[in-house]
Amino acid sequence: MPKVSDKWPRPRPSQSSLQRRALHHPGRIWVLLILGSLTLNLVMIALLASLYEGGGTPGCKAERSILVAEKKKSVVAAPQQQSTAEELVSAEEISVSSTSGKRPASKDAIINLDHGDPTMFESFWKEMGEPGDITIPGWQAMSYFSDVTNLCWFLEPEFADEVRRLHKLVGNAVADNHFIIVGTGSTQLFQAALYALSPPDAPEPMSVVSAVPYYSSYPAVTDYLQSGLYRWAGDASMFDGDAYIELVCSPNNPDGSIREAILKSRYGKTIHDLAYYWPQYTPITDAADHDIMLFTVSKSTGHAGTRLGWALVKDKDVAKRMIKFIELNTIGVSKDSQLRAAKILKAVSDGYELPVSQTNHRLFDFGRQLLSIRWQKLQAAVKASDIFSLPDFPLALCKFTGENTGTYPAFAWLKCEKEEVEDCEGFFRKHNIITRSGRHFGVEPKYVRISMLDRDETFHLFIERVLMLHH
């Protein structure tokens, strides 16, 4: 009989064999089960204790420590954040606080007049009703393209027609020999114009200037993209050079004055910002006929939320470059906004061109009457306080109304005459009135800009507070 080698593998015990052993030795199996259960319980207890004390696995520990730190930090900072939101204005050029766009909740509420939010027009459009309403079907305006035969291929024909109609009615600008370019507000058109007027191969960036006090957003918007094509160069009256882009805002934001270009050079370019050249703010003395003119729905009709503006541009090549900028920037402009704006502009023109029996809603009459009342109240309050001053505006013949009318700017450019007050914005802030400091407009902080376009309850509360301020 052959001898079995010790090197050969021993046969594995069968399952039945294991079962027989378990039956013969049950105590061993129970001991192993009990030991395993105790071990598992001890591990779980240790893990729970470590989590309770702030420990755990490295990932959980790091995440929990961050949450704990954030919670502790928020508890400490909460009172300061609330105070800042209610009492302070950010040093940023355009600041948004918890009071922006809101009605005052009480007599002691903060009044935010930092922005030119044109909510005073809400009551007019509420009364207007259906002529200003629009319904856009779900299938309409889905394509990128509006009119490919037009140089500005994303311009809705209906909006373009109403723009030309309105300018012809008011007589504030010549539109017939200009290309119309639509933009997302006049800010985008301003950027597009800078791009179009700046030579791409110039040895240094084009200087962008404007006479003080200039619109506070001009420096910020010009330098926002840190473009190599152009750069902000400050006060136009202090500029020394031949190549430049001069920004002319007329009527001027912030002081309401009528402006003209002050620089003259064959290499200089000019952009005319005519956002406020409408009959509710100033007499229409002539039809503007400049190379580039910017307008916006927000200040002409009060629809700031529509975010729409338009440019009238003479030169075709400049118009092409502006269109290219908008094409690359936003691939056109919202058709929904254009269709709504077309309906709004149509309602404005109809108010003057249709017989009075069909409509008595005249936007420019409403705006001019309301602003004239507000300016009378503000001037009386300033005179009574004896610590502030305002610019004077002469009467002028308005070709739109055919009458001698006053100037009622969208903003009050107010100066603190009190000797011990160097920071007029800070002075008003102490009285829960938020304004915009003159330093944002290139002048001393004794000046502030105050919006005249807010709702009635906000404006009336503002006047009440001014009347309480005196020597």
Provide an overview of this structure.
This protein has 471 residues and is of the alpha/beta class. The protein has two domains: 88-122 and 361-467, Aspartate Aminotransferase, domain 1, CATH 3.90.1150.10; 145-353, 3-Layer(aba) Sandwich (Aspartate Aminotransferase, domain 2). It is 40% helix and 13% strand. It contains 13 helices and 15 strands. Strands 2-8-7-6-5-3-4 form a seven-stranded mixed β-sheet. A four-stranded antiparallel β-sheet has the order 9-12-15-14, covered by helices on one side. Strand 10 (396-398) and strand 11 (403-405) form a beta hairpin. The longest helix has 30 residues, at 58-87. It starts with 14 loop residues before the first helix and ends with a helix. Mean pLDDT is 84; it is low at 1-26 and 47-93.
Instruction: Look up the CATH topology of the largest domain.
Output: Aspartate Aminotransferase, domain 2
The description of the largest β-sheet is: 7 strands, mixed
- Could you tell me the number of beta strands? 15
SSE class: alpha/beta
Overall residue-averaged pLDDT value: 84
Distance between the termini: 130 Å
What is the overall number of helices?
Answer: 13
Regions with pLDDT < 50 over 5+ consecutive residues?
1-26, 47-93
Q: Per DSSP, what share of the residues sits in E-state strands of 2 or more residues?
A: 5-15%
CATH class of the largest domain: Alpha Beta
Principal-axes geometry comes out as globular
Q: What's the structural domain tally?
A: 2
CATH architecture of the largest domain: 3-Layer(aba) Sandwich
Query: What is the succession of H and E elements?
Result: HHHEHHEHEHEEEEHEHHHEEEEHEEEH
Helix content: 40-55%
Strand order of the largest sheet: 2-8-7-6-5-3-4
State the fourth-level CATH superfamily of the largest domain: Type I PLP-dependent aspartate aminotransferase-like (Major domain)
Region (Disordered): 1-20
Family: Belongs to the alliinase family.
Domain Alliinase C-terminal: 111-466
Cofactor: pyridoxal 5'-phosphate
